[in-house]
Amino acid sequence: MKAIYPGSFDPATYGHLDIIERAAEKMDHLIVAVLDNPSKNSLFSINERIGLLKEVTKHLSNVEIDYFSGLLSDYASRRECYNMVRGLRAVSDFEYEMQMALVNRSLNPKIETFFMASDNKYAYLSSSIVKEIAKFGGSITHFVPKAVENALKEKYEGRK
Ligand code: PNS
Fold first, then answer.
1. Separation between Cα atoms, residue 160 and residue 150, nearest integer Å
2. What is the pLDDT of residues 5-51, one digit of tens each?
């Protein structure tokens, strides 16, 4: 089975990587699709986010890193892949995720969304939290892979 794991990945965390590794074990091919949305105020450019994801998934031979803009349902049609993977952390994720899954299926009834429970260790983790900690000089070693940690340090140190 082939699936798409869509997201902003600004930047990828160990929480994302955990979902990617576990999904890749179940799927023949996993496309990690990064949303390119210029109107969203992303810290990392689309190329930076793709580069970091490629770096942290290089040990996974059935994982492809790609990007899309516009509707996910249109991207699914272009890629002829209608299985979506999304991670669920706390109950607070549920409403938004359910809404997205239902909207995507109403846009294209072929689309199914498969939810994966996040690892306990990462249930509180998000890209926003990691960026906030990094911005104020806190340690993010346990939250993101080394390549992402270095990229975050560079971003915030470069801004000082
Ligand atoms: O990691 P995120 O930011 O929670 O990912 C959200 C994402 C990128 C999966 C979602 O915003 C998305 O698919 N955007 C594309 C626009 C779209 O298709 N919208 C309709 C479904 S909500």
1. 16
2. 999 999 999 999 999 999 999 999 999 999 999 888 999 999 999 99
Is residue 59 part of the annotated active site? The answer reads: no
| Number of domains forming the structure of the chain | 1
26 as an active site residue: the answer is no
Is 39 within the bounds of a domain? yes
Q: How many residues does the chain have?
A: 160
pLDDT score at 90: 87
Residue 128 lies in a domain: no
Q: Of the residues 36, 66, 69, 72, which should be mutated to test ligand 1's pocket, given the most ligand atoms within 8 Å of the CB?
A: 72
- 145 found inside a domain: no
Q: Is residue 145 scored above 80 in pLDDT?
A: yes
Give the gyration radius of the chain's Cα atoms.
15
Check 42, 86, 127, 131 and give the catalytic one.
Answer: 127
